[in-house]
Amino acid sequence: xxxxxxxxxxxxxxxxxxxxxxxxxxxxxxxxxxxxxxxxxxxxxxxxxxxxxxxxxxxxxxxxxxxxxxxxxxxxxxxxxxxxxxxxxxxxxxxxxxxxxxxxxxxxxxxxxxxxxxxxxxxxxxxxxxxxxxxxxxxxxxxxxxxxxxxxxxxxxxxxxxxxxxxxxxxxxxxxxxxxxxxxxxxxxxxxxxxxxxxxxxxxxxxxxxxxxxxxxxxxxxxxxxxxxxxxxxxxxxxxxxxxxxxxxxxxxxxxxxxxxxxxxxxxxxxxxxxxxxxxxxxxxxxxxxxxxxxxxxxxxxxxxxxxxxxxxxxxxxxxxxxxxxxxxxxxxxxxxxxxxxxxxxxxxxxxxxxxxxxxxxxxxxxxxxxxxxxxxxxxxxxxxxxxxxxxxxxxxxxxxxxxxxxxxxxxxxxxxxxxxxxxxxxxxxxxxxxxxxxxxxxxxxxxxxxxxxxxxxxxxxxxxxxxxxxxxxxxxxxxxxxxxxxxxxxxxxxxxx
Length: 498
Known about the structure:
The protein has 20 helices and 20 strands. The chain has 498 residues and is of the alpha/beta class. The chain folds into three domains: 163 residues, Rossmann fold; 169 residues, 3-Layer(aba) Sandwich (Rossmann fold); 120 residues, no CATH class. The strands form seven sheets. Strands 13-14-15-12-16 form a five-stranded parallel sheet. Strands 1-5-6-10 form a four-stranded mixed sheet, with helices on both faces. A three-stranded antiparallel sheet has the order 2-3-4. A hairpin with a 2-residue loop joins β7 and β8. α3 packs across α4, α7 packs antiparallel against α8 and α16 crosses α18. The termini are far apart.
């Protein structure tokens, strides 16, 4: 670990570029004897051969190690960022961006005081006793919010463990979560996406959420790309958004493009520009205006804002062509604005990448910024199956778990099928022994049979409104009916029709 607390300064060279230095005891105002971040420290780090490294810089202009201008082309940043881009398990935390001052506060600087507090045993993970670099950074970010500093980080690889306190075993009584009727909430979501409300039941995607958050620390636009039914919306709505809200982000209501994406965007931003509705309309709909840039200049600066565009592929299946082109032009513009108060997350189906590549700005963002959502496998998959039930005081038996893991090997795009089967299992759970069993799983037809049975039931329910006008469909039935409109079996795969 390298920790530096002291003075930093910047000098402007003859071609107008700024260069950052760490001041030594004998450094001079012209940079003599000082440590250059770009020409000395970074090359040394790049040539080092360490299994892991954490660098913490607490000084004015420490953020010069990170990009001041978070533009699309990463290759422009390689000379100053290669150590933290290319080396696995190298992690950087800087006290402030290069244009800010690391304000001092009594005995310690603000950053150092927050750092020491964040490394205390009180802030350790209650289950493991560990403090990781990511956990420390999140704590420091919360401590410095509203104090004129923005700590920044960069790293590739694992979330490094900085401190591990002695184990303090304790038995936790987990209170099951109840619905408004006082009954146990179902911990699985069937065919519906997990949202902030279901966050306690959302397991298995921590690493992906961590990666997206890390990218948002330095990028304004992150596409989340994955196969249909891979859980992209759940990752954002139940994993990322609650975390960002805890860190002080303001989350705009997530939107789907639909037929008129520009209308959706204008309606979303209207509450922030009620006194400038004409400007809002012109910036969004007038091709001759500067796009979102004038609007972003008026955004409050005390918070970071997030725009979520869910089901981005609707731009190519539903949206009017002229609205689609302008919408893509506007949101990709966010990626080119340094220190934009607004960031964008877009969930994209992998089979719609090709039409996205026709737009230069969008193509660059996908090439440089995208986070790809892999299949849920290994321990993450086991966690997603067992932990929601455990939270509600139930056990997924070993025999059931083994059978499920065996069955899903044969099913491409298994996640919706799995979640639906688990929902059916929960409804037929063994309430006497508090468990989900293999016998019940086989009775409902397994992974595929559970959905097929329910699909037949819903699809044949044609006269339901006429015969049972007072009976409401469940949320699962509504979602399944919608899927049956767009999905048809073909060669063992599920193909959406448009």
